[in-house]
Specification:
The strands form 2 sheets. The chain has a 5-stranded mixed β-sheet with strand order 1-2-5-4-3. The chain is built from 16 helices and 7 strands. It is α+β, with helices and mostly antiparallel strands. About 55% of the residues lie in helices and about 5% in strands. The protein has a domain of about 140 residues: Beta Polymerase, domain 2 (2-Layer Sandwich), CATH 3.30.460.
C-alpha cells in the first residue's frame, strides 16, 4: 500500500483515479478497521456502489455508537449514589464528546477509568447490574495476573447484552517501565453534558491516545491508531498545542507524544507537527521503531518482521523479563489458532 493511503482515507488527498487503486484502498481501509472513518469524510463524486459501501460502514458505526451510549447510561445507573465519577476512555470518550475521531469509528467495548481505591465498589456494582468475568479470562491465572500486575480489572461481560466493560485504574500496567500520572489527568477531566461521567480534556485525550499506541500495546492496528491520532490532533486549538509539550512532560508521557507527533508529520504532513516535534522534550523515535511502524502500517514486504519487533517491544515496555518470560511461555502453550474468513466487499 502506498504511503499516501492514510492521507486519502482522512480526506487530505484525493481518492485514487484508477478503479483498481480505489478498490485496493477501500479494501485496505476495511481490513484495518478504518472504513467508517474513510466514509465519514466528504466523498462527493464517488460511484453509487462505493457510496453504498460507505453508507453501510457508517450504519455499522452508528449502531456501535448507539450501543455505547446505552452502555454508558447503564454504567451511570449501576454507579448511581456512589459518588464515583468514572472517566470514559478512547472510543467512548470520542462518541460522548462528539469528536471528529468518533466519525465512522467502530466500537466494541466500553473503557472507563476510576481510582484504585474505587475498584472494589465499582466491580461489585457492575456485577450486581449484570456484568460478570468474561469467559476468556475467567480462570485463576488470568484473574490473579490482572489484579496483581495490570492497569485494569479482568474484562467484564454483560450476561444478557454481551457487551464488555474494561475498568482501568491506570493507563499503563503496574509493571511498565514508564509511568503516567493518571491522577493528574483525572483532575482535569471534564463532565459530559447531562451525564455523571467524565472524559479527559482535548490535550489529555491526545496524550492518552499516544500512550495507548506507543507505550502500551504492540500497535496491532497501526493505521487505525494513526488516523485516530491525526483526527485528535486536528481538533487541538492553538492554546492546546502550545501547552501539549508541558503537559506531556508533567504527566510523564513525553516519549509517546514525541512518537505521535513524528507519525502525524510523517504520514499526514500536518501543520505545526514538525515545529512541535523539534521543540519536544525527547528525541525522535529510533529509526528501527520508525521503520517497524511504517512497514506494518503499509504492509510492506518485511511486515511480519516489523510486527514481531513491535510485539516484543510492547511486552518489554509492559513488564520486566522475570515476569515476561514465564507469562509468554504460558500464553504460547495455551494459544490456539483462529481461522477467520475475510469478508468480501461487493465490488463490481
Amino acid at each position: 500500500m502506498q504511503k499516501s493511503a492514510l492521507k486519502q482515507i482522512v480526506g487530505i488527498a484525493p481518492l485514487p483515479e484508477k478503479v483498481m487503486d480505489r478498490i485496493d484502498l477501500v479494501r485496505y481501509a476495511d481490513a484495518n478497521h478504518i472504513l467508517g472513518q474513510m466514509a465519514s469524510v466528504d466523498t462527493a463524486g464517488v460511484s453509487d456502489r462505493l457510496n453504498d459501501i460507505f453508507r453501510n460502514a457508517l450504519l455499522r458505526a452508528g449502531h456501535d455508537h448507539t450501543m455505547l451510549q446505552f452502555e454508558m447510561n447503564r454504567l451511570e445507573h449501576a454507579l448511581s449514589g456512589t459518588g464515583i465519577e468514572p472517566v470514559v476512555l478512547k472510543g467512548g470518550a470520542y462518541v460522548a464528546q462528539g469528536k471528529r475521531a468518533a466519525g465512522g469509528r467502530r466500537v466494541s467495548d466500553l473503557d472507563i477509568l476510576v481510582t484504585e481505591g474505587e475498584l472494589d465498589e465499582v466491580e461489585a456494582r457492575l456485577k450486581q447490574a449484570g456484568w460478570s468475568p468474561d469467559e476468556a479470562t475467567d480462570n485463576e491465572y488470568d484473574q490473579a495476573y490482572y489484579r496483581e500486575h495490570m492497569h485494569e480489572l479482568p474484562p467484564l461481560r454483560h450476561a444478557k447484552r454481551g457487551t464488555i466493560i474494561d475498568v482501568h485504574h491506570r493507563l499503563l500496567p503496574k509493571t511498565a517501565r514508564s509511568n503516567v500520572d493518571v491522577a493528574l489527568m483525572q483532575q482535569s477531566a471534564t463532565r459530559v453534558a447531562g451525564t455523571l461521567v467524565k472524559t479527559f480534556d482535548d490535550v489529555d485525550m491526545f496524550i492518552h491516545s499516544a500512550v495507548h499506541a506507543f507505550a502500551d500495546g504492540a500497535i496491532d492496528t497501526p493505521a487505525r491508531s494513526l488516523v485516530e491520532l491525526y483526527m485528535l490532533y486536528s481538533e487541538l486549538s492553538f492554546n492546546d498545542t502550545s501547552r501539549l509539550q508541558i503537559r506531556a512532560k508533567a504527566v510523564g508521557a513525553s516519549k509517546p507524544v514525541s512518537t505521535a507527533l513524528w507519525a502525524i508529520d510523517e504520514f499526514f504532513s500536518a501543520d505545526g507537527a514538525p515545529a512541535l516535534l523539534n521543540k519536544t522534550l525527547t528525541e525522535k523515535p529510533h529509526f528501527i521503531l520508525r521503520w517497524a511502524i511504517t512497514s506494518k502500517t503499509f504492509e510492506r514486504r518485511l511486515a511480519p518482521l516489523a510486527k514481531a519487533l513491535l510485539y516484543i517491544r510492547s511486552h518489554y515496555l509492559r513488564m520486566p523479563l522475570r515476569l515476561l518470560v514465564p507469562h509468554l511461555a504460558r500464553k504460547a502453550i495455551a494459544w490456539r489458532p483462529s481461522v477467520q474468513k475475510p469478508v468480501e466487499l461487493p465490488f463490481p
